[in-house]
Design a protein that fits this description.
Elements (H helix, E strand, L loop, with lengths): L12 H23 L1 E2 L2 E2 L6 E4 L3 E5 L2 E2 L5 E6 L4 E12 L1 H6 L10 E9 L10 E11 L6 E5 L9 E7 L1 E11 L11 E8 L12 E5 L6 E5 L4 E8 L14 E5 L12 E3 L1 E5 L13 E4 L7 E8 L3 E7 L1 E6 L2 E2 L1 E2 L1 H5 L3 H23 L7
Antiparallel strand pairs: 1-25, 2-23, 3-22, 4-10, 4-19, 5-18, 6-9, 6-17, 7-8, 7-15, 7-16, 8-13, 9-12, 10-11, 11-16, 12-15, 13-14, 17-21, 18-21, 19-20, 20-23, 21-22, 23-24
């Protein structure tokens, strides 16, 4: 088989000029690439990752060490009360069965679990603790994304809105009294579980289903479907005139299940995390403020702390990842290493000078006069 190769006439000045320009551009491209080599970095240097109100903190592919799939949990102090709102959710079958004598709705509804003042003031000062536990109900073969965000800041209440895609969440709520045979009223308040029609539903005239919780009862579980959100607040029990009340401090969430041994897996890990700025009105996608992506399933990012406040959510992370900040990937500059070796630096400078001289000679030399 005969191969036909393109014949290049090197005697033509135009051919030599094109070759010189291509050689120059090739060297410039290689050197520019060596000045911006994508590298893996220790994301701990960017910790904590802060997502202010209006932004979103996303955890992709969360992996928890909890056998029950618990991602986050929190038991408030005795001076805090918990309020939770679900725009679109349903009571878990276990809770419907638990309350079956009251005929609770089991369909998709709007649900809230909120605090209301007791009818009578408490004579005995008991203490109550409200708690929330959020578990991931993922499907095999999917990689869920959990988003944490705040639509606006609150003066005195740590709060967060949470949404999950490609999975469901089981949110368990409970309020306990610290003394046996006592009611929530002894703590100065009681809880209300309200299940209402969905916003925009034709059955708006249908009255909500209410359950006043004045005595300790088994935990209530609510199922949040994929692409649905809910929000929860930890309010200060005692109202004060100052916006800097103790309730406004950062509140740390418990992650997964506590480690028993040092070699145990981290309570919560992730494939990637990033923060999204507020979306533009034109609905064009906005690049993340910060993103960190692990390179493999064996080298996941460790999440050691998540805190919520009245005006931000922040997270402590560690591990090796490819990182982008304001859309710019973190890179290494090989020429910084070259500059550390003077002889090597002079060699490159000499080579570059020689290349420029040769390109200039090819491009600008005068043709020979054959007359």
């Amino acid at each position: 088989m005969n191969w036909a190769f393109l014949h290049i006439d090197w005697t033509r000045p135009s051919t030599r000029k094109i070759a010189a320009v291509l050689a120059y551009l090739g060297v410039v491209g290689v050197q520019a690439g060596l000045a911006n080599i994508p590298v893996t970095v220790d994301v701990a240097k960017f910790s904590p990752v802060i997502s202010p109100a209006g932004h979103e903190l996303v955890i992709q592919g969360p992996f928890t060490n909890s056998a029950g799939g618990v991602l986050f949990s929190k038991t408030g102090d005795t001076n805090q009360i918990l309020d939770v709102y679900f725009p679109r959710a349903r009571l878990a079958p276990s809770t419907v069965e638990q309350l079956k004598s009251l005929s609770p709705p089991s369909e998709l509804r709007s649900i809230k679990y909120v605090t209301q003042e007791a009818a009578a003031s408490s004579s005995s000062k008991q203490h109550c603790n409200s708690s929330i536990e959020i578990a991931l109900l993922s499907s095999p073969g999917t990689e869920p994304e959990v988003g944490l965000y705040q639509l606006d800041s609150q003066a005195d209440s740590p709060y967060v809105e949470m949404q999950v895609t490609k999975a469901k969440l089981a949110v368990t709520l409970n309020t306990d009294v610290d003394s046996a045979n006592q009611t929530l009223t002894a703590c100065g308040y009681q809880k209300l579980l309200r299940v209402s029609s969905l916003s925009g539903d034709d059955s708006q005239s249908k009255p909500p289903w209410d359950h006043n919780i004045a005595e300790p009862m088994p935990p209530i579980t609510v199922i949040v479907d994929t692409d649905s959100a809910f929000r929860f607040y930890f309010h200060p029990l005692e109202k004060t005139g100052s916006s800097q009340a103790s309730g406004a401090a950062m509140l740390s969430l418990n992650l997964g299940a506590p480690k028993v041994r040092f070699e145990d897996a981290s309570p919560l890990r992730a494939r990637a995390v990033w923060t999204n700025p507020p979306q533009n009105g034109d609905k064009n996608p906005v690049s993340p403020d910060f993103s960190a992506r692990a390179l493999s399933s064996q080298g996941l990012l460790d999440i050691s702390k998540i805190e919520i406040g009245p005006d931000r959510v922040q997270m402590n992370i560690s591990g090796k990842a490819r990182v982008e900040v304001q859309g710019k990937e973190q890179t290494a500059n090989l020429w910084d290493k070259v500059k550390e070796v003077p002889l090597l630096q002079r060699s490159f400078e000499t080579a570059n000078t020689a290349l420029l001289g040769w390109v200039g000679f090819i491009l600008f030399r005068k043709p020979k006069d054959n007359s």
